[in-house]
Amino acid sequence: MSSIAELTERVRAFAEERDWERFHTPKNLAMALAGEVGELLAELQWLTPEQSAAVMRDEELGPRVRAEIGDVTIYLTRLADVLGIDLVQAALDKLEDSGRRYTVESARGSASKISGDYAPGS
Amino acid sequence: MSSIAELTERVRAFAEERDWERFHTPKNLAMALAGEVGELLAELQWLTPEQSAAVMRDEELGPRVRAEIGDVTIYLTRLADVLGIDLVQAALDKLEDSGRRYTVESARGSASKISGDYAPGS
Amino acid sequence: MSSIAELTERVRAFAEERDWERFHTPKNLAMALAGEVGELLAELQWLTPEQSAAVMRDEELGPRVRAEIGDVTIYLTRLADVLGIDLVQAALDKLEDSGRRYTVESARGSASKISGDYAPGS
Amino acid sequence: MSSIAELTERVRAFAEERDWERFHTPKNLAMALAGEVGELLAELQWLTPEQSAAVMRDEELGPRVRAEIGDVTIYLTRLADVLGIDLVQAALDKLEDSGRRYTVESARGSASKISGDYAPGS
Q1: How many angstroms separate the CA of residue C86 from the nearest CA in chain D?
Q2: Residue among C28, C32, C44 minimizing CB distance to B31
Q3: Which regions span the lipid bilayer (chains A, B, C, D) (predicted)?
């Protein structure tokens, strides 16, 4: 698997070659990220949960979903780069935090929809 | 910089230990991703572009923005894992696509706001 | 049902009394709207489609979903006001557009997931 | 200004004529709403705050922004209808709530970026 560091450099070079840095404020990049996540949701919105689980086997939808995941990743990487944040380390740190808040015992036992035990970091 | 592969495994283990896989359909994970991107936007929404560029130096906002980037990355990683997509490769492939559509010459010369020349992949 | 016009004036007054107009650029309001939609998604993300259909009967989730719908509506109304757009008329015009593109006959007959026949305006 | 009640009925009829009700679970509609908000953000993301304030005067962007506002409103209206929520009343109630939390005196005096005094309902 190629590295995030390599992707980060390529996205940075892509923007610099085109003289786009002035557009790449954190606000703008966050908006762009939200826009691409919206496009990803649009590919899945009318599918049942089961259809969504099989989407990558669909000849038309599979490539589109992959392209949207690609766009989301490009913007997330660029935003983290502009903010000077190590993406993966920030995620690992947050996961550790969540691990303390949602221990395995309490998460397995509780079916509470209120406490946010359904997901890391929620 | 730690690797995406390592993060992917840790997020997968985190979910499995808590028996959360049944909640992790692509639809649900895409919704969760959008929710976390929303939280990230909320941290930046009232800042001026200049304030947003300096946000990581702020003692209160800096850590919060980093935590949200962490959450977004966790969900993006988990979603890609469940879909069987290599995050970084999908991004590199999309970047290459965009490179063909928005060549350096045309992107630098054109100030068109309509053609999407402002950003990779738009 | 109270009117959108009345809501628009109250939201405007709310902002003016607090001297918030300078924060209410269309970009900022669009980000705030996305943030609130994210909060709405977060309330529904782990529910099954059936659970989501019954959510308003839940004593805890019902009021929270209603509050998020309220927040989304507040920001959408404020954004439309700042842009000088008549919300309802813009929606009616778009619906008419969509009606021409997705006629009843073609929409009922086709189960195509590709053509966007699943929803108005997609 | 046409009423939300009229729009609600037209959107409902639009969906029923095309036999789309089975796709219109609250989860799906919330995802569709997020998708359209994403499209709206995409129209504004590279503009400066000042350019965004003038966007409706732009011959190309103005109509596109108006169309996206229309789409967002269509989905919000449909979602509220399916959930049995009075959109405008939910917003008025939330505004009243926010009015109690962010009084005029405290909001005008405080420039705190931490307390959420920048916006109603945040």
Answers
A1: 7
A2: C44
A3: none
User: Tens digits of per-residue pLDDT, A19-74?
Assistant: 999 999 999 999 999 999 999 999 999 999 999 999 999 999 999 999 999 999 99
**B48 contacts in chain D (CB < 8 Å):** 49
| Whole-number Å distance between alpha carbons of D33 and D22 | 17
Over 90: is that where the pLDDT of D85 sits? yes
Q: Is C1 exposed, middle or buried (0-12, 13-18, 19+ CB in 10 A)?
A: exposed
Average pLDDT over every residue of D39-48: 96
Retrieve residue C49's tokens: 């489609």
Question: What does the alpha-carbon distance between residue A2 and residue A4 come to, in Å, rounded to a whole number?
Answer: 7
A117, pLDDT greater than 60:
no
Task: Using CB atoms, list chains with 3+ pairs below 8 Å to chain C.
Answer: A, B, D
ipTM of the complex: 0.89
Residues of B in contact with C28 (CB under 8 A): 45-46
Name residues whose C-beta falls within 8 Å of residue C49's C-beta, 6 or more positions apart in sequence: A48, A49, D25, D27, D28
Q: Domain A4-104: what homologous superfamily?
A: MazG-like (1.10.287.1080)
Domain boundaries of chain A, sorted by first residue: 4-104
Distance CA B31, CA C40 (A): 10
